[in-house]
Amino acid sequence: PGVAQYEWHLTVAQAAPDCFLRDVITVNRQFQPTIDVTQGDFLQVNVFNDLPATYPQTSTGVSIHWHGLSQKGFEWQDGTGYASQCPIPPGQNFTYLFQVNEPAGTYLWHDHSSQLRADGLQGALIVHAVGGQAAEAWTYDEEQTLLLSDWFHGEGNAMGMTLERPFDLTKATAESGHWRWVSLPQAVTINGHGNFLDCALIGGLGNVNGTALSETACKVTDYTVPPGRSTQLPWAQPSNPGCTHANVTVEAGKTYRLRLISAVSLVYLTVCFEGHNVTLITADASPIDPISFGPCVDLNSGQRYDVLLTANAAPGNYWISAQPQYRMGTPSGFAVLNYKGVGAALPTSAPSQPGSVKPWSLSQINSIHSAAALLNPGASIASAPQPQPRISPDNYIFTSNAPNLQVPAKTRTVGFNQTQPLIATGQIRWALNNVAHDTVPPCTPTLLDVYNNPNYVEQFAVPANAIRNLTAPGQQVGASQQPDIYLGGVNFPDQPTTGLNILSVDLGEVVEIVLQNSPASAFNGDYRGAATAASRTGQEQHPFHLHGHHFWVLATGNGTWDPNSSPASYNLVNPVYRDTYSLLANGWAVIRFEANNPGVWLYHCHIQWHMFIGSNLYVVEGAEHISKPPDNYPACPAICTYEDAPYTTP
Ligand code: C2O
C-alpha cells in the first residue's frame, strides 16, 4: 500500500469567510483543506500545533479525528481528546499514521479536543476507490465537494466554555462563569464562503412558521472580544474581495458526483440545488438505493450524502442554498451553480422560498430525510431520475450484511434516555440515563487507562453504568430481558451524575441501542429560557455519531419508544448503514452495530456544545484486546483535574 503524507502546521490567521473579519485556524495557511487518500493506503498526518498558547484561550491543545473511519486496528489514532489521546499541546506535534481500510467515499476530519471545529479546524476527507472513478459503482463525469459549516463571530471555546480551566463549578453561574450557550451562528458557509450581510436576502428566505427573520436576527453578535484579541471589524460591503460566494462550476450535459458534507457545529441544514434534481447515492460513505427528493437533501451535523446532479438545465447561474431547519434565525448559506461559458454571477432572481423549493413540510423533514425513507430505500427507485447508477442489489452493504441483523442470540439491547437536566449549580447539562459526561480533563486518556487495566471500567461504582435497567425512577440494576432504558420522561431526576459515562461491550456482540429523546429542561423555544418545570415542553433533534463503527439504523419514531410495539417497525432487511443519525425531536431511534473493533469509541451528540456539556458516552469495546500505544503518544497536560475519578451514583 501507498502512503498519503501530510505535514500540517496549525496557525491562527485573520480571515473573513462570511465577510466578517476574525481569527480563524488554518492548516498551512489554508482554510479547511481537503485530505485525499486511496482506499487501502496509509494516511500519515504530522500535526504541528503551532497555535499560540493563548489561542484558543481555553484549550489545552488539539487532536484530529477522522470522522467515519472505523480505525480498526488503529484505535490509538482516533484523535479524540481524553478518550484515545491527550491533546497535542501548543509547540508540539503528533504524527497520525493508520491504514484506511474503509469503503471509498466521503468522510471528514476535525478537531476533537475542544471547540475548534467552530474556528475552522475541519475539512473534507475523501477516500478514493482503488482504480479511481472508473472503479466506482456509479457513472459520472466529474466530482466536487461541498463542505458546509455554520460560522460564528466568536471563538468556539470562548463562546461555549468557561473562561478558565480547570473548571470550577463553584464559580459557575447560569450565564457567565462555567458555561454559556453560544446562541445562533452568524452564517452558514459553503466551501468556506458565506455572507452574514445577506440579511435582506435572508429576510425574504426565512419566513418560517409564519415568522419572518429580521435583518437583526442575522446580525447577532452576542460575543465580547476577548482581551488581547484583535478588534473584529465587519467587512462592510459584500463587494469586499474577501467576501464572495462559492462557485460550483459545471459543464452543460455532464453528470457530477457532489460530495455533501455537513461539518456544522450546530444547525440542521436543507441543501437545495435550484433548477436541478439530485439523486442520493451514498449516506455516510455507504451505498444506498438511489433516491431523489427533488432538488434538496437534508444533512445533520457529521452526516454526508453523495449525490448525482446532471447539468441539464438552461445554461446559467443557479442558487445552491443551505437552509437551517432548526435553530431558526440562523441565516442561510448560498453558493452558485455556474454553467461553464456563462459568466459566474449571482442569479438575478432571489432564491426560492423554502416552501416552493422543498417538497415537504418542516415537520416531515426528519421522518423523510433523516431515516424513514432511507430505511426503505427500495420504494423510490422507480421514480428516481436519470442517470440510473449502475449498481446491483448485491452491492448494497446493508443487503449483504442483513443476516447479521438477525442474530438475536448475540444481540444485546441497551437503552439511553437523553435528557437535559440541571446540575446542582443550576446549570444545564445533557445527560444519557442521567449521567452527564464530565467536562473536566482527566490526567490520562481512557484508552490508556483501559489498556493498562482491562478491568478499568469495573472500578466505577456502577460498572458499565449506562446499562441500567431503569424502568421506574430509582429502580436499580437488574437482569431483565427488557432493554435497559428509562422512559420516565419529564419525571427524570433533575440532577444528573457527572462522570465518565461508559458502556462496556464484548467483542462479538451485536449491540442494539435504543435512544429516547426526552423533553429538555430549559428549552422553551428560546434557548435562554428559564428552566422551569412548565417550560419543559421543548425538544430538539440531535445528530448522534458513533466512533469506530458504521451501524444500521433500524427505526426511528415519534413519541416514546415502546418495548411492545416499537420493534415491529424495525427494518431488519435493508436498513441504511451509516455513522451519524438523527434522533428526532420528541422521538426515538434504534441502531445496531457489531462489536468487532477493540477500543474506546465515543458515542455522542455531534452538536459541538451538546457533547461538551455531557451528551457523550464512551463505548469500551474488547478491553483486553487493545493494542500497544504508539511510541509518540502525547503526554497529558500538566494541569489535569482528576486521576481515575470514581463514578458515583446519584
Ligand atoms: Cu465528528 Cu466524535 O465526531
Question: Strand order within the widest sheet?
Answer: 10-9-12-17-14-15
- DSSP strand tally: 32
Find the CATH topology of the largest domain.
Immunoglobulin-like
In CATH's first tier, which class of the largest domain applies?
Answer: Mainly Beta
Average pLDDT taken over every residue: 71
Q: What percent of the residues sit in helical stretches (DSSP H or I)?
A: under 10%
Largest sheet: 6 strands, mixed
Family: Belongs to the multicopper oxidase family.
Pfam families: Cu-oxidase (PF00394), Cu-oxidase_2 (PF07731), Cu-oxidase_3 (PF07732)
InterPro entries: Cu-oxidase-like_N (IPR011707), Cu-oxidase_2nd (IPR001117), Cu-oxidase_C (IPR011706), Cu-oxidase_fam (IPR045087), Cupredoxin (IPR008972)
Protein name: Laccase
